[in-house]
Write a structure and sequence with these properties.
Elements (H helix, E strand, L loop, with lengths): L4 E3 L5 H15 L10 E3 L8 H5 L8 H14 L3 E3 L9 H6 L8 H12 L7 E5 L2 H5 L4 H6 L3 E3 L3 H14 L7 H14 L4 E4 L2 H9 L7 E3 H21 L1
Parallel strand pairs: 1-2, 1-3, 4-5, 4-6, 6-7
Helix pairs in contact: 1-10, 1-11, 5-11, 8-9
């Protein structure tokens, strides 16, 4: 198999399934051979990234993620994607292990936002993500460099975000009203111009209940678009 990419582990199984569905949809294939070649590491036993970042656990997810990177490298992947936002805390360490490029999900997301919701007109970007990704400031640097004011929720609103991630999606429930209420709280009470979905469980919610009329920046959907574009470019290059 030539020019295949690898989807690394580190996100929940429901989120992994959602990413693959979005990926296949964005390929716009009309026959089997037009779909992309890829392998998926559904590494469900990767320890919780947020618990480790916040010191609630000493079980480091890095060795598990490094194992996936090493295997994908040995298999000959052309590039890798890691759809877990929180796991991007260790992206530099993972990239140091391999010469194979790993797409930078936060940077891809902010680059997309710059094109569709520029900071000159949409300066306040509400951040929905895990407490681990907030603590590690996964998105704060790229957002700030692009001119955005990344708006973190207070603990009461973060608790609602946590409930969407852990009590809803990770347990197989998808509640549109609860999801919409949190998004609207960012837009109306925090006066945000956009809302960034910085957790793949939240993106899984957005896949089931898309809200195209709202200024939502969906990191998973954006990474899927970047992945499809890169894979198709490599396929075109190899066909010449």
């Amino acid at each position: 198999m030539r020019n295949f990419f690898a989807v690394l582990g580190g996100m929940g199984t429901m989120a992994t399934e959602s990413f693959v569905r979005v990926l296949d949809k964005e390929t716009h294939a009309t026959r089997d051979q037009e779909f992309l070649d890829y392998v998926v590491f559904n590494h469900a036993t990767v320890p919780d990234r947020t618990d480790f970042i916040l010191g609630r656990s000493t079980n480091d997810p890095y060795p598990y993620l490094a194992e996936d990177v090493d295997q994908a490298t040995r298999m000959g992947a052309s590039f890798m994607v890691m759809a877990c936002n929180t796991a991007h805390l260790v992206l530099p360490r993972l990239q140091d292990r391999t010469t194979v490029p790993i797409l930078n999900m936060p940077q891809e997301t902010i680059d997309w936002a710059v094109e569709h919701f520029p900071s000159s007109t949409h300066p306040r970007m509400g951040y929905m993500g895990t407490e681990g990704s907030r603590h590690a400031a996964i998105y704060h640097s790229p957002a700030s460099k692009a001119g955005y004011d990344l708006v973190d929720p207070d603990q009461a609103l973060q608790d609602k975000v946590n409930a969407l991630i852990y009590q809803d999606v990770k347990e197989g429930r998808f509640d549109r009203d609860r999801y919409l209420a949190v998004v609207q709280e960012f837009l109306e009470h925090y006066h945000c111009d956009t809302v960034l979905l910085g957790c793949t469980e939240l993106s899984a919610l957005n896949e089931v209940y898309p809200m195209p009329d709202l200024p939502i920046v969906d990191s998973q959907a954006i990474l899927a678009l970047s992945t499809v574009r890169r894979a198709k470019e490599l396929r075109a290059e190899s066909s010449h």
